Amino acid sequence: MTILRSAAAGLALLLAAACTAPTPPRSQASTAAGSACAPPQAPPEAETAATIDVVEQAYFCILGNYYSGATLDARSLLTAGFLALTQELNRDGRDVPEAIMPALTGDRKADWAAFEAAHRKTTDQVPDLRDKLTVVTLEALVAALGDNHARWTHDVKRPPDYYDGDGYGVGFQANVNGPQADGNVALAPLFVTTVQGGAAQAAGLRPGDVIESINGSAPFIDGTPTPAIAALYPRYPEARPVQLRLLRQTTGRRWTVTLKPGLYPRDPATLRVVRSKLLDDVAYVRLTGFTPDSANRVLKAISRLRTGRTLSGVVLDLRGNGGGSPVEATRLLSAFVHGKITAYQCTVDGRCATARTDDTVELLNLPLVVLIDRSCASACEHVSSAVKDLRLGQLVGTRTAGVISGPAQSYLLANNTILSFPARHHLGPNREVIDRIGVPRDHHVPLTPEDAAAGRDPALAKALTLLHK
């Protein structure tokens, strides 16, 4: 499983989404705390330590630019930040009498001044922990938004000798995506879907192996996923070995393995964003992310498969697609319909911008089936909801992730880190809320451990059946 590549790709998308205003002078980019934040115009320079001044800049950046910043009760952010500070003190066994949350009144500026004074008074007592305490404070402040497209990107480390073809982790994919392992998107049991290499391959893991425990803890309790699942998605350099208790249902064997995260080479074919093949008279195209020009690449692949033959339809496989550019999502949809709204992007007071089809894109005029799963998120859900609402085709698989709060805008903070969050929230073509809920499938065809072990793809089989009716 590769976390570093995901982090790097996410940062690239944040930078690509930034506005194209003239680049500010360096002195402006490293502006004083509390000043207006601005989109980055180039990759940031070397990161410096987060200070309380940077937290202040982030606080006012959120209040001035976030989707609900104008109506947000800023006290919730400050309370979350101070809670994180005290929890970190407790973890280090260094709690201090000065760590007292001040009374807040709802006056954003006055509340910040009180919070800052208390934060400085606390961290002055433990100067060796100041940097760590400031980091957890800012992380908690952003997390308090409860927004799946809000994040603070900082301190992204790569292991030594990392190169673009490497994977990093324990070497397999599971049916539960770590960052999306909540009650909406995760269903028991937890099992291996793909072995990519590294420790998992060396230990002999196979698709279909059921993971009964992780470091001694159950991955699900009463059907609800537990924090133990996060250990499958290690981040360098904090990664530690992961102990798994496994069941191979085909033989009944139970055994325990310890997997040490590390680098491993990946099959170059699996790194391609667009993969395609002909399945009898059906064009099958798998799209793993809405990266720049991905829509054109999908359409070119279908055109090549269509040359010299008559196609009965298209299977667009979006399983595991974590999203990307909403522009690419709209462009891909435009090959199946013209003159329609594919989504709305709305402010907190209900003013909405529309994402309309690009009617310069040539229509394919082919039946469509889209494969979705609980790792289909963001721009992937933009496409899925439009296919459903506009009746462009049929959805096969399971409900999507419900991770589509809105397109994130990125902002450069004074210590050369990136803060990102949506200014508008996403609604489907029928103005329905998709975030946290997901897009329901038309045909429920989940992958089971038995299917994975046998190399079967029941969702694809169902799609082909629908296109040949």
Please tell me about this protein's structure.
The chain has 469 residues and is an alpha+beta fold. The chain starts with a helix and ends with a helix. 28% of the residues lie in helices and 20% in strands. It has helices at residues 4-17, 26-29, 52-65, 74-91, 108-123, 130-143, 198-202, 294-306, 326-333, 379-389, 449-454, 458-467, and strands spanning 151-153, 166-169, 172-174, 192-195, 210-214, 220-221, 224-225, 242-248, 253-259, 262-265, 274-279, 282-287, 313-317, 341-346, 352-356, 368-372, 394-397, 408-412, 418-422, 425-427, 443-444.
Write the layout of secondary structure elements.
Layout lengths: L3 H14 L8 H4 L22 H14 L8 H18 L16 H16 L6 H14 L7 E3 L12 E4 L2 E3 L17 E4 L2 H5 L7 E5 L5 E2 L2 E2 L16 E7 L4 E7 L2 E4 L8 E6 L2 E6 L6 H13 L6 E5 L8 H8 L7 E6 L5 E5 L11 E5 L6 H11 L4 E4 L10 E5 L5 E5 L2 E3 L15 E2 L4 H6 L3 H10 L2
Parallel strand pairs: 12-13, 13-16, 16-17, 17-21
Antiparallel strand pairs: 1-19, 2-10, 3-4, 5-8, 6-7, 8-9, 11-12, 14-15, 14-20, 18-19
